[in-house]
Specification:
The chain is an alpha+beta fold. The chain contains three helices and 13 strands, in the order H-E-H-E-E-E-E-E-E-E-E-E-E-H-E-E.
Length: 242
């Protein structure tokens, strides 16, 4: 009995120690940048402009609204649009180690297809993606009408894509990579996409991570079919950089 009691006491100390270490780690994880829609309300464009984000292309026509603590995006036409935050040099995000996104999809765009080799033109569409741009050196887009962009990783939620597979778009193949994480195709579910950004950048590009210079939320439902009166419906609750 004495030995058993002593063992239980020792085991309890280990559990307490691990709990302390986890709390210490959480407390020490500094939030470098956050995009939080939990209390957002009012006009979406005005809300974003106040925090220095811009609405580009057709995104303003995609039925953007704040609803139940989230940003909802529901395009009813075949459109492409992006919300973007370009940082000034003094605002660059240095030392980012992790990204965490809370988001989901209520309807995936019918006809999206990321499969096939990267030299094949595919219907690379998404209900929502979150893009992280690195550095300020612009790389060739591969198409004269597409602007050159810096390195970027685009996280998206897909219905038929594979988790942890590295996808390429039709353009920006030198510096752009697309990752569908967690990518189980569910609808109406809040996903948590959590990535060690510095390790992923090195894995994808073979170099030390550059500072984060811009962020984007992209929606692309061109060449997809309308279902239930819309081409897709997605939402995003929060994005955090640590």
């Amino acid at each position: 009995m004495g030995i058993e009691k002593k063992f239980r006491g020792h085991y309890k100390k280990i559990i307490i120690l691990w709990g302390f270490l986890l709390l210490t780690f959480s407390a020490g994880a500094e939030t470098i940048y956050e995009l939080d829609f939990s209390t957002a309300s009012g006009n979406v464009q005005n809300w974003f402009e106040k925090i220095k984000w811009e609405l580009r292309r057709d995104v303003a026509d995609m039925n953007l609204r704040f609803e139940d603590g989230k940003l909802v995006i529901e395009p009813t036409e075949e459109e492409f649009g992006v919300l973007i935050r370009e940082f000034e040099k003094k605002e660059y995000l240095h030392g980012v180690s992790k990204i965490r996104i809370e988001w989901g999809v209520d309807q995936y765009p019918l006809g999206a297809d990321w499969s096939g080799p990267k030299d094949k033109t595919r219907n690379t569409r998404e209900a929502i993606s979150f893009m992280v741009f690195f550095g300020d050196t612009k790389l060739d887009s591969g198409f004269v009408l597409a602007p050159d962009l810096p390195y970027f990783i685009s996280f998206f939620l897909g219905k038929d894509e594979k988790p942890d597979h590295v996808y390429f778009g039709n353009y920006w193949q030198d510096g752009g990579r697309y990752l569908c994480i967690p990518c189980d195709g569910s609808i109406g579910k809040t996903f948590i996409t959590e990535i060690d950004l510095s390790a992923k950048f090195f894995e994808l590009f073979g170099k030390k991570q550059l500072p984060v210079t811009a962020l984007g939320i992209e929606i692309d439902v061109k060449k997809t079919e309308k279902v239930n009166g819309r081409h897709s419906k997605a939402f995003i609750k929060r994005v955090e950089f640590f």
